[in-house]
C-alpha cells in the first residue's frame, strides 16, 4: 500500500481530517479521480 491509501482513508470517514480536507475541496471522489482517473482537482 502506498500513501494514496492513507489520503483515501482520511476522506472516507467523518471526522476532523475529513472536514478539514472537505473545506479545501478534497473529497474521496476527487482523490480517486486524481489518483486513478487522470483528473484534476482545484482547491475551493
UniProtKB/TrEMBL annotation:
<dbReference type="GO" id="GO:0008233">
    <property type="term" value="F:peptidase activity"/>
</dbReference>
<keyword id="KW-0378">Hydrolase</keyword>
<dbReference type="GO" id="GO:0006508">
    <property type="term" value="P:proteolysis"/>
</dbReference>
<protein>
    <submittedName>
        <fullName>Clp protease N-terminal domain-containing protein</fullName>
    </submittedName>
</protein>
<keyword id="KW-0645">Protease</keyword>
Amino acid at each position: 500500500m502506498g500513501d494514496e491509501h492513507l489520503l483515501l482513508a482520511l476522506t472516507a470517514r467523518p471526522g476532523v481530517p475529513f472536514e478539514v480536507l472537505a473545506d479545501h475541496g478534497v473529497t474521496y471522489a476527487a482523490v480517486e479521480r486524481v489518483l486513478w482517473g487522470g483528473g484534476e482537482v482545484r482547491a475551493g
